[in-house]
Amino acid sequence: MRVMGVDPGLTRCGLGAVEGRPGAPLSLVKVGVVRTSADDEIGARLVAVEAGIEQWLDEVRPDAVAVERVFAQHNLRTVMGTAQASAVAILCASRRGLPVALHTPSEVKAAITGSGTADKKQVGTMVTKLLRLDAMPKPADAADALALAICHIWRGGVQNRLAEAAARAAAPGAGTTAAAYFRGRGRAGYSRGKTQ
Q1: Structural element, H or E, at residue 147
Q2: Is 39 tagged catalytic?
Q3: 12-26: pLDDT as tens digits
Q4: CA 25 to CA 67: how far, in whole Å?
Q5: Model pTM score
Q6: C-alpha–C-alpha distance, residues 26 and 80, integer Å
Q7: CA end-to-end distance (rounded Å), the chain
Q8: What is the CA radius of gyration of the chain?
């Protein structure tokens, strides 16, 4: 599975792509950031973020996109920019029909380091070890994007299988099949097993 992680931001939007599967070694595909100037108009900045993400999607061709879930901060201006960049990433992936997953910062930290309260240096150090890199990815936004991708590979696979199973169970006819099973051999077999 190839996952592109997005650590949303207007000044620096971290992007990182990782390939692998749970229980197997992971490999780095690409890492970097899309930068915009705080002096530019908001519209121009969002267009630049979109162009950068679209270019990455063309080059990386991920199976899924993992975006950091925006959480409340004391600085309203910062959280607004983060939410806007996050929306652009979700839009770009959804337009291509790619599945999008949102992971909270504490969920990512717990998946990567084992602690939901780890700091950026601890996350960067573990990303470096997990991907067998010579140096920690910089800036921290890039390392965070890789951490998102790793988190989704490890946790998203299970979540996707559960969602697919739930969708199959909710599909028309699924209930009828299960009911027929229990009315037929299923219940009879269970009863026989209990009485013997």
Answers
A1: helix 140-151
A2: no
A3: 999 999 999 998 999
A4: 22
A5: 0.79
A6: 33
A7: 48
A8: 21
